[in-house]
Amino acid sequence: MFSAMSCRKCGSGIGVCLLEAMGDDLGDEWWDQGEDLGDSGGEDVHDVHDSHDSQDTQAAAEEPKKKVAKKRKLQTQEADKVKKKKTVQKKTITDVLATSEPAPGSPADLRSLVQSHFSGTRSVIEQEELKLPESCFLTSNDLSHSLSSYLKEVCPKWAKVQKQHTQTHSVVLLIVCSSALRTIELIKQLTTFKGEAKVLKLFAKHIKAEDQMKLLSKSVAHIGVGTPGRLSTLIEKEGLSLQGLRYLVLDWNYRDQKQRRMVDIPEVDYTEAGSCGKCLETRKYPTNATIMCSCAVNFNIPKMFLGDVFFYYGLINFHQNLRRYMDSRDDAQLVGRKNSLKAPSSYCEPFAYDPNGVPIAPCGAVANSRFNDSFTLRYRTSDGNEIDVPLIRKGITWYTDKNVKFHNPKTNSTLQQTFQGTAQPRYWQRPVYDLDPSDPNNNGFINDDLIVWMREAAFPNFKKLYGILNRAHDSFSQGLPAGNYSVHISYSILHVHYLALFLCVIISIYFHGRKEVVLTTLTWFGGKNSFLPIAYLVSGGLIFIVGVVLTVVYVKVGRDGKNME
């Protein structure tokens, strides 16, 4: 019952006694040994028995000590095994994202993006100066870090750095992220790190660039968190200087609800980006609505878009879902009825007639506020030349809208003669019969852009289809290649109208939201929309529960209600 080690540990004499006392068979019976000893003399026998008794007592005393020691040793070994099992290596960001799409970003991706962006505008020597060595990058692959704990690790002397910074128009730490919501989220995470530092929100939503420039000039700011578009605008207008910048954090691998990273889908806010700022100032006044203004915005696509590519324009903070706005249209006029063409519905007021009493076609607030920016997308080839990206501008509407809800009046005259005696909406730059000079069949009420706009959006932030990549061109047969692009915009400004309920007064103000262009592709499963599946699951679950309850009531009570009391 004892191991060989125990025997060696106890010694040969005691070991034998312990083993014999436990009844182990060593080959010689103890009673035979007693008889042999009895022949030699009684005293010797008594001494031997006394010796055995004393040794038995000693063994009995040491046995529980041995068991306790062995038990403790086993417990220690088991505890060590448990500790080894609990020791898990720290998870890294790249390990978690390695099996997902898109692949996690790395310093090499940033260097490649910088090189691709400046390849067409800088010489080889200038590009060499822009290359970032590996020593410029800080380790950022530990998934266990929060933003504050990570910054504490890479900026251990933050309190000292913060006190030494006294320069206005500049920040020490700049964090670039994908959206305004992400900006607010990151600012909340900075609470335990920032200390007495001042943090600025540098995004475009509901905040003017001029206001942010005033904040940067009035006081010293230490941390800036913002979006690429607004940061670019502030730098171009010299509202934000990079002289005092010491740390730049790119929120590269964060993914939004649509699994998009900051660099994956080009989403260019052009409201006041680049040369569009001067157009915004010009178009703030309704009297300048008919003045032409053009601008351009440059951007880079780091990865090729395979397959069909869709070009959208987007509006932020434009409420097409207001009841009075949605009602301000004449569907009978849009379907091509001649009587409604010259006698618009009262629902269109105050946009039914112009100041001279001429009926407006199409009438109403929805048509009057039509989005009328036009875009030309250009691709910069490897040799520095720019080519236009061909877009399909027809076939972008819903089938029911194009073939059921919208028709031109049926006459034997030309379209211009048909609409003679009507006026164009107040802020349109072209009459309805000349919306698309390049295609006579895309004019009037059946113009695709007009039909797309007239389908109101359910939310204040929305996107509408502008065109689809024409892959018949050899350069774009596989999709949209990676590289440098520019979008040239014929800029207009939307005007929102408010009608006082008891006064016959129209208040017109310019649109205070944002405008953007978006390039995207579609998967076989479609785009991600969290609202609909949640709504369907909740509704389906409630219906299922109600069905079970009614079934139980029916079974228990019976069809005739005999068991009901």
From TrEMBL:
Q: Does the keyword Membrane apply?
A: yes
Put simply, this protein is called Protein CMSS1
Family classification: Belongs to the CDC50/LEM3 family.
Q: Whose protein is this, by species?
A: Hemibagrus guttatus
* Record's GO cellular component terms: 90S preribosome; membrane; nucleus
* InterPro entries, per database record: CDC50/LEM3_fam, Cms1, P-loop_NTPase
Q: Where in the cell is it found?
A: Membrane
Spans traversing the lipid bilayer:
493-511, 531-555
Q: Which SUPFAM superfamilies match?
A: P-loop containing nucleoside triphosphate hydrolases
Keywords on this record? Membrane, Transmembrane, Transmembrane helix
Q: Is Glycosyltransferase a UniProt keyword of this protein?
A: no
Spell out the Basic and acidic residues composition-biased ranges. 43-55
Spans annotated as Disordered = 30-85
Which regions are flagged for Acidic residues bias? Answer: 30-42
